[in-house]
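Run log, item B.
One chain of 427 residues. Sequence copied directly from the ordering sheet:
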Amino acid sequence: MRGGGPRTPRTPGSGGPRGPRRLYEQARRAWDRPLTAYYLILGSSLLITVLGLVMVYSASMIQALEYSLPASYFFQKQFVAAVIGTVLLLLASRMPAKLHRALSYPLLMVTVFLMALVQVPGIGHAVNGNQNWIYLGGPFQLQPSEFGKLALILWGADLLARKQDRRLLTQWKHLLVPLVPVAFLLLGLIMLGGDMGTAIILTAILLGLLWLVGAPTRLFAGVLCIAGFVGLTLIRTNENRMSRLECIGAIDLGPEGECWQAVHGIYALASGGWFGSGLGASVEKWGQLPEPHTDFIFAIAGEELGLAGTLSVLALFAALGYAGIRVAGRTEDPFVRYAAGGVTTWITAQAVVNIGAVLGLLPIAGVPLPLFSYGGSALLPTMFAVGLLIAFAREEPAAKAALAVRRPGVRWKTMRRRVKKRPSGER
């Protein structure tokens, strides 16, 4: 035999799996690593936010010029919000769970106060028919109901965790009180302003918390039926909401153009093709599609980036949702489980409602796409919530040990221990 000694024949089973099976095993081991959820949350949220900034600039420039503003006006505001949101994300990712729990009650009280302040004439302002904004001066305004989602999650998780420690969750009254009344208080304040979309997301968060805590099926179904009945009543008593319901799957604008936004959203997606018309080349944003940089930014993304771009966005949200579920399922801390599950429910439910409306599968609810659409009031609490998930992912015992090994000082000391001492004359 060439090149030295004879080769040893390879016996069956002497090596590892080969081909597709080997790749599958390697992928499975990589997927089960302790830091998988940490990197998925960090990477997917960062990519969604950066891609959202690009699409906000592309989708909003025409509307900014129509208002006699610089083309980058909306992008600049969103970029400032993203920078502040990044600071909040880093802050939340470094805060211990005890501090998050301590902030839950003050955050809830401040949010309720601001949401009530919105209804005071002269302080609260209406946008697109919804009375849910407070102007802070200049071009800056605040939507307190967006912070109500985060407040309900943190306060509800702390409440349920304390009741679980006292073994009170076996009684139905402790499952419902005061969680459901406080959630209904927030929903009532939201509905006073006419914001049906935010009310849907808040209801989803409430149902998600009840599901995580293991509420009995009858109790869970009862709350769901009450919420559904109230929602249908509010829809049937409002012509605007009824028209949105009737525009599901519409392919015609309607006699008075009531399905204009839904149909033109489909036009934008249909004209994108496989790989889109290119960044900045959208036709629908030239006054045809309302709210191209907020509620219907996904349609502009489909027109400019094509099916490949929209599927990439869906994959990023799927990765973020999976990582959140993984964090909630692997922890032993009840507060972390409920808070991580609540944040995951919030982001995924809002993404489904927004994308479903753009695709014509759900009524137009007027909610932004998390981390992607324009709007600082929506971006800031969402990035803080993502920081929560990162903090919880870091606190897993296996993940904490893996991160400790990867610190430069620890790695250097570990390598020094592994190096054998050589004799004094050896080089």
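Observations after the first pass:
- Confidence is low (pLDDT under 50) at residues 11-16, 410-427.
- The radius of gyration is 25 Å.
Flagged for discussion on Thursday.
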